[in-house]
Amino acid sequence: MAAPNQVQIIIPKDNAHQNQRNINIPESEDDQIDYSERAQWLRAAVLGANDGLVSIASLMMGVGAVKDDAKAMILIGFAGLFAGACSMAIGEFVSVYSQLDIEIAQMKRENRAAENNESLPNPIQAAMASALAFALGAIVPLLAAAFINDYKVRLGVVVAATALALVAFGLVGAVLGRTKVVRSCVRVVIGGLMAMGITFGLTKLLGSNGLEM
Q: Where are the bilayer-spanning segments (predicted)?
Protein backbone atom coordinates (compact mmCIF):
# COMPACT_ATOMS: atom_id res chain seq x y z
CA MET A 1 0.00 0.00 0.00
CA ALA A 2 1.29 3.47 -0.92
CA ALA A 3 2.20 5.87 1.87
CA PRO A 4 0.18 9.11 2.31
CA ASN A 5 0.90 11.92 -0.18
CA GLN A 6 2.48 9.39 -2.56
CA VAL A 7 1.12 8.32 -5.89
CA GLN A 8 1.58 4.72 -6.88
CA ILE A 9 1.96 4.22 -10.63
CA ILE A 10 1.45 0.72 -11.98
CA ILE A 11 2.67 -0.04 -15.51
CA PRO A 12 0.69 -2.83 -17.13
CA LYS A 13 2.79 -5.81 -18.03
CA ASP A 14 1.56 -5.80 -21.62
CA ASN A 15 2.72 -2.18 -22.10
CA ALA A 16 6.06 -2.93 -20.51
CA HIS A 17 6.66 -5.76 -22.91
CA GLN A 18 5.52 -3.59 -25.78
CA ASN A 19 8.01 -0.87 -24.79
CA GLN A 20 10.77 -3.44 -24.69
CA ARG A 21 9.89 -4.66 -28.15
CA ASN A 22 9.95 -1.11 -29.53
CA ILE A 23 13.50 -0.48 -28.38
CA ASN A 24 15.72 -0.22 -31.43
CA ILE A 25 19.10 -1.86 -31.02
CA PRO A 26 21.72 0.12 -32.96
CA GLU A 27 23.19 -1.85 -35.82
CA SER A 28 26.92 -2.21 -36.04
CA GLU A 29 28.75 -0.49 -38.88
CA ASP A 30 29.45 -3.88 -40.45
CA ASP A 31 25.72 -4.75 -40.51
CA GLN A 32 24.91 -1.53 -42.38
CA ILE A 33 27.21 -2.36 -45.31
CA ASP A 34 25.49 -3.73 -48.37
CA TYR A 35 28.04 -6.24 -49.61
CA SER A 36 25.98 -6.93 -52.71
CA GLU A 37 27.11 -3.53 -54.02
CA ARG A 38 30.64 -4.93 -54.20
CA ALA A 39 29.55 -7.86 -56.31
CA GLN A 40 30.13 -6.17 -59.67
CA TRP A 41 33.75 -5.08 -59.34
CA LEU A 42 34.63 -7.87 -56.90
CA ARG A 43 33.47 -10.50 -59.37
CA ALA A 44 35.58 -8.93 -62.13
CA ALA A 45 38.63 -8.60 -59.87
CA VAL A 46 38.45 -12.12 -58.45
CA LEU A 47 37.83 -13.60 -61.89
CA GLY A 48 40.70 -11.60 -63.39
CA ALA A 49 43.18 -12.44 -60.65
CA ASN A 50 42.43 -16.15 -60.67
CA ASP A 51 42.34 -16.29 -64.45
CA GLY A 52 45.68 -14.49 -64.73
CA LEU A 53 47.30 -16.66 -62.10
CA VAL A 54 45.96 -20.01 -63.31
CA SER A 55 46.17 -19.42 -67.07
CA ILE A 56 49.72 -18.03 -67.06
CA ALA A 57 50.95 -20.65 -64.58
CA SER A 58 49.32 -23.38 -66.68
CA LEU A 59 50.81 -21.91 -69.85
CA MET A 60 54.26 -21.87 -68.29
CA MET A 61 53.81 -25.42 -67.00
CA GLY A 62 52.80 -26.52 -70.50
CA VAL A 63 55.95 -24.99 -71.98
CA GLY A 64 58.01 -26.50 -69.20
CA ALA A 65 56.61 -29.93 -70.03
CA VAL A 66 58.40 -29.99 -73.40
CA LYS A 67 61.17 -27.42 -73.00
CA ASP A 68 63.48 -26.78 -70.06
CA ASP A 69 64.59 -23.33 -71.30
CA ALA A 70 63.76 -20.72 -68.65
CA LYS A 71 63.87 -17.87 -71.19
CA ALA A 72 61.21 -19.48 -73.36
CA MET A 73 58.98 -20.04 -70.35
CA ILE A 74 59.31 -16.43 -69.20
CA LEU A 75 58.76 -14.92 -72.66
CA ILE A 76 55.66 -17.01 -73.28
CA GLY A 77 54.42 -16.11 -69.81
CA PHE A 78 54.76 -12.38 -70.51
CA ALA A 79 53.10 -12.77 -73.90
CA GLY A 80 50.21 -14.50 -72.16
CA LEU A 81 50.05 -11.73 -69.55
CA PHE A 82 49.71 -8.95 -72.14
CA ALA A 83 47.28 -10.89 -74.31
CA GLY A 84 45.21 -12.08 -71.39
CA ALA A 85 44.95 -8.67 -69.70
CA CYS A 86 43.76 -7.05 -72.93
CA SER A 87 41.35 -9.90 -73.59
CA MET A 88 39.90 -9.78 -70.08
CA ALA A 89 39.47 -5.99 -70.22
CA ILE A 90 37.74 -6.07 -73.61
CA GLY A 91 35.60 -9.06 -72.68
CA GLU A 92 34.46 -7.52 -69.40
CA PHE A 93 33.74 -4.17 -71.05
CA VAL A 94 31.63 -5.71 -73.81
CA SER A 95 29.73 -8.10 -71.54
CA VAL A 96 29.03 -5.55 -68.81
CA TYR A 97 28.06 -2.92 -71.37
CA SER A 98 25.56 -5.39 -72.82
CA GLN A 99 24.20 -5.96 -69.32
CA LEU A 100 23.95 -2.19 -68.83
CA ASP A 101 21.99 -1.75 -72.06
CA ILE A 102 19.59 -4.53 -71.08
CA GLU A 103 18.97 -3.09 -67.60
CA ILE A 104 18.44 0.44 -68.91
CA ALA A 105 16.00 -0.81 -71.54
CA GLN A 106 14.11 -2.76 -68.87
CA MET A 107 13.99 0.31 -66.62
CA LYS A 108 12.50 2.37 -69.46
CA ARG A 109 9.85 -0.27 -70.09
CA GLU A 110 8.93 -0.27 -66.39
CA ASN A 111 9.18 3.55 -66.11
CA ARG A 112 11.79 3.35 -63.39
CA ALA A 113 14.49 5.93 -62.76
CA ALA A 114 18.15 5.31 -62.04
CA GLU A 115 17.88 7.52 -58.97
CA ASN A 116 15.61 5.04 -57.23
CA ASN A 117 18.56 3.25 -55.61
CA GLU A 118 19.30 1.44 -58.85
CA SER A 119 22.81 -0.02 -58.93
CA LEU A 120 23.68 -0.08 -62.62
CA PRO A 121 26.73 -2.00 -63.90
CA ASN A 122 29.82 0.01 -64.74
CA PRO A 123 31.63 -1.37 -67.84
CA ILE A 124 34.79 0.72 -67.41
CA GLN A 125 35.15 -0.20 -63.74
CA ALA A 126 34.70 -3.89 -64.54
CA ALA A 127 37.20 -3.74 -67.42
CA MET A 128 39.88 -1.99 -65.35
CA ALA A 129 39.39 -4.28 -62.35
CA SER A 130 39.60 -7.37 -64.54
CA ALA A 131 42.68 -6.28 -66.49
CA LEU A 132 44.64 -5.11 -63.44
CA ALA A 133 43.72 -8.20 -61.45
CA PHE A 134 44.72 -10.45 -64.36
CA ALA A 135 48.14 -8.78 -64.55
CA LEU A 136 48.56 -9.05 -60.77
CA GLY A 137 47.76 -12.75 -60.84
CA ALA A 138 49.94 -13.43 -63.88
CA ILE A 139 53.02 -11.80 -62.40
CA VAL A 140 53.17 -14.35 -59.56
CA PRO A 141 54.31 -17.41 -61.56
CA LEU A 142 56.54 -15.19 -63.71
CA LEU A 143 58.43 -13.88 -60.70
CA ALA A 144 58.58 -17.37 -59.22
CA ALA A 145 60.31 -18.74 -62.31
CA ALA A 146 62.43 -15.75 -63.27
CA PHE A 147 65.42 -16.40 -61.00
CA ILE A 148 65.62 -20.20 -60.96
CA ASN A 149 67.82 -22.04 -63.43
CA ASP A 150 67.18 -25.64 -62.41
CA TYR A 151 64.35 -27.06 -64.51
CA LYS A 152 62.61 -29.26 -61.92
CA VAL A 153 63.02 -26.76 -59.12
CA ARG A 154 61.57 -24.03 -61.34
CA LEU A 155 58.44 -26.08 -62.07
CA GLY A 156 58.00 -26.91 -58.40
CA VAL A 157 58.37 -23.27 -57.36
CA VAL A 158 55.81 -22.18 -59.96
CA VAL A 159 53.29 -24.70 -58.62
CA ALA A 160 53.96 -23.74 -54.98
CA ALA A 161 53.81 -20.00 -55.63
CA THR A 162 50.62 -20.38 -57.63
CA ALA A 163 48.95 -22.45 -54.90
CA LEU A 164 49.87 -19.89 -52.23
CA ALA A 165 48.63 -17.03 -54.39
CA LEU A 166 45.36 -18.88 -55.00
CA VAL A 167 44.88 -19.19 -51.25
CA ALA A 168 45.58 -15.47 -50.84
CA PHE A 169 43.17 -14.46 -53.61
CA GLY A 170 40.49 -16.77 -52.26
CA LEU A 171 40.96 -15.28 -48.80
CA VAL A 172 40.76 -11.69 -50.05
CA GLY A 173 37.65 -12.42 -52.10
CA ALA A 174 35.95 -14.11 -49.15
CA VAL A 175 36.78 -11.28 -46.74
CA LEU A 176 35.61 -8.54 -49.10
CA GLY A 177 32.42 -10.38 -49.94
CA ARG A 178 31.85 -11.71 -46.38
CA THR A 179 31.61 -15.32 -47.54
CA LYS A 180 33.06 -18.53 -46.11
CA VAL A 181 36.85 -18.37 -46.26
CA VAL A 182 37.69 -22.09 -46.26
CA ARG A 183 35.23 -22.94 -49.01
CA SER A 184 36.46 -20.08 -51.18
CA CYS A 185 40.14 -21.00 -50.76
CA VAL A 186 39.65 -24.73 -51.33
CA ARG A 187 37.59 -24.11 -54.45
CA VAL A 188 40.16 -21.88 -56.17
CA VAL A 189 43.18 -23.98 -55.13
CA ILE A 190 41.72 -27.26 -56.38
CA GLY A 191 40.63 -25.65 -59.64
CA GLY A 192 44.03 -24.03 -60.22
CA LEU A 193 46.02 -27.18 -59.51
CA MET A 194 43.76 -29.19 -61.80
CA ALA A 195 44.27 -26.68 -64.61
CA MET A 196 48.06 -26.78 -64.26
CA GLY A 197 48.12 -30.56 -64.02
CA ILE A 198 45.92 -31.07 -67.08
CA THR A 199 47.91 -28.57 -69.13
CA PHE A 200 51.23 -30.10 -68.13
CA GLY A 201 50.04 -33.64 -68.80
CA LEU A 202 48.46 -32.99 -72.18
CA THR A 203 51.41 -30.92 -73.39
CA LYS A 204 53.82 -33.61 -72.21
CA LEU A 205 51.76 -36.16 -74.13
CA LEU A 206 51.85 -34.08 -77.31
CA GLY A 207 55.57 -33.52 -76.91
CA SER A 208 56.25 -37.23 -76.54
CA ASN A 209 54.43 -37.80 -79.84
CA GLY A 210 56.80 -35.59 -81.77
CA LEU A 211 55.13 -32.18 -81.46
CA GLU A 212 58.03 -30.54 -79.65
CA MET A 213 58.75 -26.82 -79.69
A: 72-90, 126-148, 155-176, 188-207
